[in-house]
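Hello again, I could really use a second opinion on something today. I've been staring at a protein lately and its backbone has me curious. Can you walk me through what the tokens say about the fold? Take your time with it, there's no hurry, and the full record follows here:
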Amino acid sequence: MNFLHYICFSLSWLALIQFESTYIYPVLTYIVLFIITSKQPLQCSKIILTLTGIGLLIDFVFIYFHIIEFANHNSPIPPLWYICLWPLFATAAQSSLRVFINTHILAQILMGAFSSYLAFHFGTQINQNVHVHHFLPIIICWAFIFPLSLKLSKKPT
């Protein structure tokens, strides 16, 4: 089942990055189905809301300090398609990424840092409307977010 979630996460991420708002409804449908079919829907929802809240706070800071900018978007709130990436990531943290829960914390930190750079680098190559001016703050944040997301996801969902 984790492989299926990995495929759904990857396709959803790519759809949001490439086509922005066009595929929000299928992605949100996947997130809702993920919650409904989880063993503990309430716990699953709490993890998704927690990680989304943390992510939005980080994104506000990144936008405020011009670390990330969106073309034709002058709001401190990220575009809706970008916000959808957080609950989508939270589903992955509770499914396909759970294989890393028992990995050493240093490995989790390095994985978060390295994978965030790759995701943002390739994401900005795919979507020319997103501009990352400074990768270091993103890498540092994800070095902490990734292990935190795994810690939150330790309980069965």
